[in-house]
């Protein structure tokens, strides 16, 4: 009997799942008749975020040489790996540069279309390993990977594409009927939802306000035309979505940045933005290493994780992991300082490191605080350098600004941004960036050690660390922060502060922070909210939830935003605690349960992203096989 598998969401995870299905079927003597339904209302093979028709101003936050969608030798996958080019190697091949085997052989067997080579010719010519490519070019790479995966499927596999959104699912006689927004119905024996950044239900008062409101969404899907030229606009969000929106309403409206002088030449079509967020401070720019970034050392942190991994007891980040991680951070700072400005040290660096190890940081450790430990180490190292490291100041850059007005606060943040730009431009020679890179590098191993409910329930320090690590390590390319600096300089952007509160009246919106107040007739939410199963606006996930076929992941009895899934298969857990027989969910919506699955695979790593799609592919085939027997 013909079995049917539905793949909902055909961005990177959907593509990788198809490639893994092909890998599992490779060499199978008798492949049953199988139909794959590829479902996406955006481009099938790039998804919404990586659409190939989006403005070329939209750039990846990842370096060309630091992303792939192929498994590599040694990966923890069940089917054979398929060694394919990284994004940068693919670009090199398009330039005619030689690749090593077997990647070159794969490209010879599946050549890239001339239309892609011609359409991106200028970008392909100038891209370096450490460049931030356009999202559209990455989308073209993804579509090529999908083409490779589809070509490797056995003849017994039929592929049907559905350019529509899945809006519901219902059980029918031991199978599932998936309803598309077009009214089409698909019968599936196994389904996976790889839906990415699902939106949540909007704030009803904003929808009812009658005032222009740009809803949270993927920036290229937002109505940025609603932000009026020459008028005041309130903006919530200072992460990547903000930098994207900023680009669309400045360079996207004819303005011009002059990077060498940190100057912006307006077109006159820009709005004036007053910006705020929970932290109130922009994400830090990535360092310009003029190469791929280094690997974090994390000697003490890794040793502590290895020690804790021998058991299955709960892990308290604040008390068990944070003190040694802080030691790693401070050592990275002082060793880099010793290399670039040795005259700034009053003691030898090895002696300083011994003092770091001897400091009794555990006495200051807390399950709820991440400031006390670094403050104690800064005090213990008093006098060792004319350039002491203050990690607490980096954690709370706006401490002490509560009494400042908007203009004063904006001037303070502009000065700090100038410092951030200088540190990022120093690249390998910035002691501060060396220290913060340890923070960034610790996020993945920490997340993996505490995933699936292993974090101690009363440890709030973990969430604070992860948020801080995201700000210092997942910020924009350096040129974006330079652009923001230029916009502040010319008066088009000002800052309101942290933890804003919102009020709405007949005249418009009012945001307030620590006594500072800003008003405007238009509000823009410049962020993609983390998906939340209990508040999801996605009709497909709502149909699963209302039917009791999925429940929130609830470690220690506390519901999280994630749907609960099985570790071995990623099948969802029903409300009654049983595994659903057919439905799987993977990727970004499960981030509260599984670590690092939201991060694109990096070359040379055993990427959880690819481990997950491999598990899903194996389970989909196993479930579908029962139909064909």
TrEMBL record:
UniProt protein name: Exopolyphosphatase
Coiled-coil blocks: none
Domain of life: Bacteria
Species classification: Bacteria, Bacillati, Actinomycetota, Actinomycetes, Mycobacteriales
């Amino acid at each position: 009997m013909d079995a049917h598998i539905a793949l909902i969401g055909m961005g990177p995870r959907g593509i990788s799942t198809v490639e893994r299905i092909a890998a599992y079927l490779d060499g199978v003597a008798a492949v049953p008749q199988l139909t794959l339904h590829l479902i996406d209302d955006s481009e099938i093979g790039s998804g919404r975020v990586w659409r190939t028709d989006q403005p070329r101003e939209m750039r990846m936050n990842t370096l060309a040489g630091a992303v792939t969608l192929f498994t590599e030798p040694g990966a923890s996958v069940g089917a054979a790996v398929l060694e394919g080019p990284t994004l940068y190697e693919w670009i090199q091949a398009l330039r005619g540069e030689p690749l090593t085997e077997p990647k070159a052989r794969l490209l010879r067997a599946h050549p890239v279309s001339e239309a892609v080579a011609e359409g991106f010719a200028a970008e392909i010519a100038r891209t370096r390993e450490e460049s931030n490519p356009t999202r559209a070019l990455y989308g073209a790479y993804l579509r090529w990977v999908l083409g490779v995966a589809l070509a490797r499927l056995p003849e017994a596999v039929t592929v049907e594409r559905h350019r529509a959104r899945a809006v519901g699912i219902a059980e029918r006689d031991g199978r599932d009927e998936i309803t598309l927004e077009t009214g089409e119905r698909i019968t599936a024996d196994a389904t996976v939802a790889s839906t990415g950044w699902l939106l949540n239900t909007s704030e009803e008062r904003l929808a009812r306000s009658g005032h222009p409101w740009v809803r949270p969404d993927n920036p290229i899907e937002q109505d940025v035309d609603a932000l009026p030229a020459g008028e005041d606009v309130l903006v919530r969000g200072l992460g990547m979505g903000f930098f994207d929106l900023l680009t669309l309403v400045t360079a996207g409206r004819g303005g011009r940045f002059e990077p060498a002088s940190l100057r912006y030449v307006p077109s006159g079509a820009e709005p004036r933005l007053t910006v705020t967020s929970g932290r109130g401070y922009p994400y830090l720019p990535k360092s310009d290493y003029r190469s791929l970034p280094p690997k974090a050392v994390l000697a003490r942190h890794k040793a502590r994780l290895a020690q804790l991994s021998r058991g299955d007891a709960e892990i308290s980040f604040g008390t068990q992991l944070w003190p040694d991680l802080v030691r790693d951070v401070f050592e990275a700072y002082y060793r880099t300082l010793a290399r670039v400005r040795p005259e700034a040290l009053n003691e030898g660096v090895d002696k300083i490191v011994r003092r770091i190890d001897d400091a009794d940081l555990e006495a200051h450790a807390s399950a709820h605080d991440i400031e006390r430990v670094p403050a104690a180490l800064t005090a213990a190292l008093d006098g060792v350098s004319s350039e002491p490291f203050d990690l607490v100041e980096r954690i709370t850059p706006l401490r002490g600004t509560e009494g400042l007005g908007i203009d004063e606060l904006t001037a303070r943040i502009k000065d700090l941004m100038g410092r951030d730009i200088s540190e990022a431009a120093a690249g390998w020679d910035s002691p501060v960036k060396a220290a913060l890179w340890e923070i960034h590098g610790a996020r993945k191993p920490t997340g993996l050690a505490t995933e699936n409910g292993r974090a101690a329930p009363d440890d709030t320090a973990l969430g604070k660390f992860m948020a801080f690590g995201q700000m210092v390590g997942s910020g924009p390319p350096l040129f974006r922060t330079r652009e923001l600096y230029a916009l502040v300089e010319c008066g088009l952007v000002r800052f309101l502060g942290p933890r804003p509160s919102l009020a709405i009246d007949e005249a418009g919106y009012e945001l307030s922070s620590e006594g500072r107040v800003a008003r405007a007739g238009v509000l823009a939410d410049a962020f993609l909210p983390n998906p939340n199963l209990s508040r999801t606006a996605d009709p497909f996930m709502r149909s699963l939830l209302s039917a009791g076929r999925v429940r929130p992941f609830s470690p220690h009895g506390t519901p999280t935003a994630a749907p609960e899934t099985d570790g071995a298969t990623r099948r969802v857990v029903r409300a009654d605690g049983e595994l659903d027989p057919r439905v799987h969910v993977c990727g970004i919506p499960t981030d509260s349960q599984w670590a690092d699955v939201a991060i694109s695979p990096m070359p040379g790593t055993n990427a959880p992203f690819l481990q997950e799609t491999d598990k899903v592919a194996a389970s989909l085939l196993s479930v579908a096989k029962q139909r064909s027997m």
